[in-house]
Design brief:
By secondary structure, the protein is α+β, with helices and mostly antiparallel strands. The chain is built from 9 helices and 16 strands. The protein has 2 domains: about 1-230, Metallo-beta-lactamase, Chain A; about 235-290. The protein has helices at about 40-55, 70, 75-80, 90-95, 100-115, 195-205, 220-250, 255-265, 275-290; strands at about 1-5, 5-10, 15, 25, 30-35, 60-65, 85-90, 130-135, 140, 145-150, 160-165, 170, 180, 185, 210, 215-220.
């Protein structure tokens, strides 16, 4: 089954915020929130925390799949509101959050959304990571709820996925791609095609009942079990498509970007992403394949 990421997913596991930008709440003895969407979502996440925890100050952890603005954006806001909140992420993400240029980019990508969504200050100022994750780490949150850290580079160098054995559930960020409106999978190998494929192959060994996508959808049952194999095939196909376009367009990367943008974004209208971040990501994917040739 494919459902919107909203509300109760399983006992003790919830999606808060809104389906476009879900954060996933697991309520053990020490409640944890996985990812934190864009900056403007901060107040909405607080509302969700109040709904399911009674008091948002019960939240102990915010664990991040990677350092992109639509996955870590509200973390500083939450940390300002919940003083004891600890942030967990990959070492490379922790390094990214110390770079003025990275903070400036996150702020730039976030400001338009902030202007359209309320007047409370939700800006991204800085973010200190308290817990550095490494591959294979196991974190126990109490009440029989624990999870395993799986490093899954390829989308970004700092990408992490979280596997929760109790639910046979996976929170992969964008390490497995994203759906569009037509339920077509779009691969997201921004930093390395080879690493992305290796990460997919690693995740394909998991026995899944629940797959919590980074945007819009949660998959359960057979849809969860079969998704990663489909994503692997779609990734191979997209690589060949970029290679063919590069050959046909004499290696002109920007021409390839514009062709795919017209075909996938403008003509279909199916892409569930704003134009600017979509183009930034597409340019990175074309660059990755061009440099691999």
């Amino acid at each position: 089954m494919i459902i919107q990421s909203q509300g109760k997913i399983a006992e003790g596991l919830y999606a808060i915020g809104m389906p476009e930008l879900p954060a996933f709440l697991m309520i053990g003895e020490q409640p944890a929130l996985f990812d934190a969407g864009m900056t403007f979502m901060g107040p909405r996440y607080l509302e969700g925390l109040k709904t399911y925890l009674g008091n948002e100050n019960r939240l102990r952890f915010n664990f991040l799949t990677h350092s992109h603005f639509d996955h870590c954006g509200a973390s500083p806001f939450l940390k300002r509101k919940i003083s004891q909140l600890q942030i967990g992420a990959h070492r490379l993400a922790a390094d990214t959050f110390k770079k003025p240029n990275a903070i400036a980019l996150i702020r730039s990508l976030s400001q338009g959304y902030e202007k359209k969504n309320g007047h409370e200050d939700t800006s991204f100022d800085s973010l200190d990571v308290d817990i550095i994750f490494e591959d294979g780490m196991e974190i126990d949150l109490g009440k029989g709820l624990d999870f395993r850290v799986i490093t899954t580079p390829g989308h970004t160098r700092d990408s992490i996925s979280f596997f929760i054995p109790e639910f046979k559930a996976l929170i992969p960020g964008e390490a497995v791609g994203v759906y569009d409106k037509n339920m077509t999978i779009h691969p997201e190998f921004l930093s390395s095609y080879n690493d992305y494929m290796a990460s997919l192959e690693k995740l394909a060994t998991l026995n899944l009942d629940i797959l919590m996508m980074s945007h819009y959808f949660t998959l359960t049952g057979e849809d969860a079990k079969g998704y990663i194999a489909k994503s692997i095939e779609r990734t191979k196909e997209f690589k060949v498509r970029i290679e063919n376009d590069l050959h046909e367009l004499s290696g002109d990367r920007e021409a390839v970007v514009q062709r795919i943008f017209r075909e996938d974004y403008e003509k279909t209208g199916a892409i569930l992403q704003e134009k600017r971040p979509y183009l930034i990501n597409l340019q990175a994917k074309v660059k990755t394949i061009a440099e691999k040739r």
